[in-house]
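Hello everyone,

My group is preparing for a crystallization screen and wants a predicted model to guide construct design. The compound we'll soak is zinc ion. Before spending weeks at the bench, it would help to have a computed complex in hand. I've included the protein sequence and the ligand's SMILES below. Output in structure-token form would be ideal because that's what our pipeline reads.
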Amino acid sequence: MSKDGHSGGCQCGRVRFHVNGPLGRASICHCRMCQKAFGSFFGPLVSAPNESFAWTRGEPAWFHSSNKVRRGFCNHCGTPLAYDWGGPALELAIGAFDDPEMVPPTIQVGLDHRMSWFSHLADLPTRPAAEQVKVDRFQAEIVSFQHPDKDT
Ligand SMILES: [Zn+2]
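Reply:
Good plan to model first. Here are the tokens for the complex, ready for your pipeline.
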């Protein structure tokens, strides 16, 4: 990863991208289309200027979710990757970046469909210690088939 660059890709690694420069606005969108496209409560997206963006391995498949927008995803592992409205920047799924911690959202949009309990998520209880020990044992035996979070 170059100094100002950001790389990312899908879970299986068949599709990779790189942004050679600063990213634009990072958002979470609560609209029903983003919920469905991400299979989640909201869609986390950051804009990447067309002139500094490239698919560096493979290409996503595209689903036209409307007459104005197409959504890119890996057609092998299903990872949502992009939102393309034909503008000067492509919107990329924040969770697909190798280091999403570097892309904190700065705005939320699409409030009409925001889950009523959205603001309580951070207050959810976590596992009791005794249960966590069992989970740790299970996790220790996992062999990941996920692409590593780096360009290879
Ligand atoms: Zn994939």
